[in-house]
Amino acid sequence: MDRAEYAEYIKKITPKSKIWSSLLRAFIVGGLICLLGESLNALYKMWLPNYDQTQIGALVSSTLIFLAAVLTGLGVYDKIGYFAGGGSIVPITGFSNSITSAAMEFRKEGIIFGTCANMFKIAGPVIVVGVAIAMLCGLGYFIVGLFI
Question: Whole-prediction pTM value?
């Protein structure tokens, strides 16, 4: 079997990806997570009229993180992630899921060397890159501000 025949064979037996349905599911689930966040935002504004938008935003973020952690602990968020793909990992709930699942995986190794040491293995690089990019953007904003 030469290269061309092998390539044709691989093309024939490789399952076709359903990219449009995957994109649609990711869009819908990600949108539903954002809709939940906006609904919580509206409810918190109604229930807590003396809070400003920064405080309400912190409450919404905390609530979404808590709900995702609980759903991860119950095994539901994994099913959502399997169905939605990237639509469930992009919002803040995906960050909560990555930390919670790592903490659950390493809890048998103890609280310090298991849970605490391994909790940020997946999410840690995201935090580092986010902080580095934020610093670069801030530096760029500062430099541009000197000339404008």
Answer: 0.72
